[in-house]
Amino acid sequence: MKLQLYVPDGRYAPWIEGFAQALPEAQCLTWEGSRGEQADYAVVWRPPLEMLRGRTDLKAVFNLGAGVDGILRLRDQDPAALPAGVPIVRLDDAGMAAQMAEYVTHAVLRHFRRLDDYAGQQRAGAWKFLKPYRREEFPVGVMGIGTLGTHIARTLAGFGFPVRGWSRSAKTVEGVQGFHGEDGRAAFLDGLRVLVNVLPLTPETENVVDAALLARLAKGAYFINVARGQHVVEEDLLAAVQQGQLAGATLDVFRVEPLPAEHPFWGEPRITITPHISALTLREDSIAQIAGKIRALAEGRTVAGVVDLQRGY
Ligand code: NAP
Ligand code: GLV
C-alpha cells in the first residue's frame, strides 16, 4: 500500500515516521519525491492543484485538518481539480474539539469576568469595582454545531451560560437551544452577548459575519472567530468595534494569513489576535485516526468525516 503525503511546510520526517509505526504495511512517500507515481491514498494539507487533478489511482484523499476549503478551493482554478468519485475525508475531532473548547471558553470567560476591563484599570493604576455581568443574562451563540461546535457549546453550557446553536439542519444538543437554516438565523442572533463562529467555509457561509449580522447582537457584544477569516467582512467588524456595537473580538483566523503587518486589526487594542492556533492538528491523533480509517475502508466499512462535495463540508 502506498501513501502520498503533502504538507506545505515540507517537514515530512515526523509524519513518515508516524505512519511507519501506525501502518507498517504502507510505504509513505512525499509528493515532491513521488510525482507521477501511483498511490493508494493521498494525505494532504492545502495541496497543490497538480497533486490531485486527473488522478484515477487514489482510493481516498485524507485532509490533515477539519476544514476542507483548502482542497475544495482547487475547483476555482480548475473545475476538474478533484479526482472523480474519490472520497475526501476530513479529520473528525482528532483532539481538536478539546483545544477549541479551551480556547473559546477562555475568551468567553475573559469577557464575562471583565478581565480586559480590569487589565485596562491596572495599566491606569486604578483599584475599582466593576459591576459583574449576570450569567443568566449572558446568552452565548455558537454558529456551526458540528463536531467542534457541539463540544464548545456543551462546555459553555457546563459553565451555566444560556447557549444557542445554529446549524444548517435541525440538531438536538442537550442544554443547547437549537436554531437552523436561514429562517432560524435572526432568532439565533438576536441579543447574543457573545457570538462564536465555528462554521466551515463554503459559498453559503463566506462573508456571513457582516454589519447586518453584528447589528443583531446585543450592544457591546463580543465576537470570537475560530473558523476562517473569509467568514468575516473585516471592515464591518472593525467598524462595529470602533463604534461600540462590539466590545471586542478574539480572532484566530484572517482573510490573509499571516495577518499583514499593516492590517488595522493589529492596532486595535479591543481585538485579540492569535496565529491560527485555536485547534492544532495533533500529529499522533491524526495519524491514528487516518490509519484506522484506511483499515476500515480496506474492509469495506464506512468512515466518519467523508466530505459532501455539493454541500462543501
Ligand atoms: P463539521 O462537523 O462539519 O460542522 C459544521 C457545522 O456547521 C455543522 O453543524 C453544519 O450544519 C454547520 N453549517 C454548515 N453550513 C452551514 C450553513 N450554511 N448554515 C448554518 N450552519 C451551517 O465541522 P467541524 O469539524 O466542527 O469544523 C468546523 C470548522 O472549524 C472547519 O471547517 C474549519 O474551518 C474550522 N477549524 C478551525 C481551526 C483553527 O485552528 N482555527 C481548527 C479546526 C477547524 P449541519 O450540522 O446541519 O450539517
Ligand atoms: C484548521 O484550520 C483545520 O481546519 O483543521
From TrEMBL:
Keyword Phosphoprotein: no
Taxonomic superkingdom: Bacteria
InterPro entries (alphabetical): D-isomer_DH_CS (IPR029753), D-isomer_DH_NAD-bd (IPR006140), NAD(P)-bd_dom_sf (IPR036291)
D-isomer specific 2-hydroxyacid dehydrogenase NAD-binding domain: residues covered: 107-278
Keywords assigned by UniProt, alphabetized: NAD, Oxidoreductase
Protein name (Swiss-Prot/TrEMBL): Glyoxylate/hydroxypyruvate reductase A
Species for this entry: Cupriavidus malaysiensis
Organism lineage: Bacteria, Pseudomonadati, Pseudomonadota, Betaproteobacteria, Burkholderiales
